[in-house]
Design goal:
Distance between the termini: 50 Å
Mean pLDDT: 78
Shape: flat
């Protein structure tokens, strides 16, 4: 297994249920990684939505040093595609060269419902049982 550590630059989303400005842990994490970043004290930083992973809606980037002593940002998925050892051969055999999870920071200003997402097999079974589980939500 590969034992290198990589610095991630993670995406985040803003929603009104997030904490505001510098009181947000997300804002603090962003500042620790990018000290020059400007944090807006009137903006919500949705702490449920700090994503560390390869989800297409908000993929993480990896900061890499180049041969010329500079840095480049590479999509985490690109790095995983190039070297399956980063996820292990066993994980790659089951899930492919990707992360089988999405890590999220959970710290919010207001109460939220908890969501659980079924795996593909269970989702197919549930859909067969009730294909219109949200009746009236489409036109």
């Amino acid at each position: 297994m590969d034992t290198r550590f990589f610095e991630l630059q993670c995406g985040y989303k803003t929603y009104e249920w997030g904490r505001i400005g510098h009181e947000s842990c997300i804002a603090k994490y962003l500042l620790s990684a990018e000290p020059c970043r400007i944090i807006n004290n009137n903006e919500y930083y949705a702490e449920l939505q700090l994503w560390m992973g390869v989800h297409p809606a908000s993929s993480s980037f990896v900061r890499l040093s180049t041969k010329h002593n500079s840095e480049e940002m590479v999509l985490l998925q690109t790095l995983l595609d190039e070297d399956e050892r980063l996820v292990s051969h066993e994980v790659a055999q089951v899930y492919g060269k990707t992360l089988p999870f999405l890590f999220k920071v959970l710290s919010v200003r207001t109460a939220l419902s908890i969501q659980a997402h079924p795996d593909k097999k269970l989702a197919e079974t549930l859909h067969r049982q009730d294909p219109e589980h949200y009746p009236g939500t489409y036109i």
